[in-house]
Design brief:
This protein is an alpha+beta fold. The chain has one domain (2-159, 223-329): Bira Bifunctional Protein, Domain 2 (BirA Bifunctional Protein, domain 2, 2-Layer Sandwich), CATH 3.30.930.10. The protein has ten helices and twelve strands. It has helices at 2-13, 15-33, 76-84, 122-141, 164-171, 182-191, 202-218, 270-286, 296-301, 315-323, and strands at residues 59-60, 69-70, 90-97, 109-118, 145-147, 152-154, 160-163, 225-230, 240-241, 244-255, 258-265, 308-314. Strand 5 and strand 6 form a beta hairpin. Helix 2 packs across helix 4.
Length: 338
């Protein structure tokens, strides 16, 4: 009985935070509805939960038919099928799941916000992101400024746009486009302290350098930062930049050195999408991971996608910045220690 009472008291202490979170989600929905975006509920059991080599899904058990199903790592695949059917602009607030180590910025269960703009370039998505961050900060805090540790941010400032090439030249010491092989990536990562063995892929090396050499430098920038133009191996579902062959038309949005959003112009070439799917599954096999099952409906839908841009925005991370990290930890079903 004492344990049950303690559990109830813990829930009572979270009431103010639960209400704050409810207000935040209401503001997000109001933002998109005022801009003509219908909300879409994506399924929580999916035939394939990803394509990228680093995404590890949870497998769902108990299907009487024996079929495999997974918890979604994001609602992306379902929303793209809708776009291919002609649905038009849309957004989704969806619980997502990734089997990865827990930490201050990662949880196995989290809330993701995705939206898509058919017929619009990627800079329209960036404007959405900046407007959303500013409006949420003002609505929920009463000010566009966010005071955290070790950063102070002003969401009313225009975003600072840096290419990944510029960031790497400044803080890693070389332009990533000068690297021609996985071996060269490993040498570069090793020169910055990575224990990069033969099993390290270009993706592994890039992620290490971004995390250890670039993201920390972004903490000192008071405005939002859009890091734009990624290597091809960082774009499983994104198109190349029309004016920069070999560079993926993708940006990541950072506030205070924390990545909040991953956005890109969508790939609309089904043949190329299948090639990338095969390439990334080979990378998973090389890392001794099972390949992601092919989502044939998605692969067929890519050829029917209109030119469009989309984004995944980390709701829990942003609310953690606004209200303190406790707010990220109060969702039902997440142990209090996460």
């Amino acid at each position: 009985m004492a344990g049950r009472a303690s559990s109830l008291e813990s829930l009572r202490s979270r009431h103010p935070l639960l209400k704050a979170r409810s207000n935040a989600l209401w503001e997000i929905r109001r933002f998109f509805r005022s801009r003509g975006f219908p909300e879409v509920d994506a399924p929580n059991l999916v035939p394939s939960a990803g394509m990228e080599p680093h995404l590890d899904p949870f497998e769902a058990r108990g299907w009487s038919s024996g079929r495999k199903a997974f918890l979604p790592t994001s609602p992306e695949f379902y929303l793209k099928k809708l776009l291919a059917s002609g649905f038009g602009r849309c957004f989704s607030l969806a619980p997502s799941f990734r089997d990865e180590p827990e930490g201050t910025r990662h949880s196995p269960e989290f809330l993701i916000l995705e939206w898509y703009r058919p017929g619009k370039p990627l800079d329209a998505i960036l404007r959405d992101c900046i407007d959303l961050c500013r409006i949420l900060a003002i609505s929920l805090l009463g000010t566009p400024r966010i005071a955290g540790s070790p950063y102070t941010l002003d969401t009313s400032l225009p975003p600072r746009i840096l290419t990944v090439s510029e960031a790497f030249e400044r803080w890693v010491g070389t332009d990533w486009k000068a690297l021609d092989s996985p071996a060269e990536w490993r040498v570069l990562a090793q020169s910055h302290g990575a224990a990069a063995g033969e099993n390290w892929s270009e993706n592994d090396c890039f992620s290490y350098l971004l995390l250890t050499r670039v993201e920390g430098e972004l903490t000192a920038i008071e405005s939002p930062v859009a890091l734009w133009g990624f290597p091809p191996f960082q774009g499983a579902l994104a198109r190349e930049c029309p004016d920069a062959p070999g560079v993926i038309d993708r940006f990541e949005l950072y506030l205070g050195g924390i990545e909040l959003a991953n956005a890109y112009a969508e790939l609309t070439d089904g043949v190329e999408q299948r090639r990338r799917y095969r390439m990334f599954q080979e990378e998973r096999r090389a890392a001794c991971k099972p390949p992601h099952p092919a989502d044939e409906e998605l692969l067929e839908a890519v050829d029917h996608l209109p030119p469009c841009s989309g984004v995944a925005f980390g709701v829990d991370r942003f609310l953690g910045m606004l209200f303190g990290d406790t707010l990220r930890r109060i969702r039902h079903g997440i142990p209090s220690g996460i």
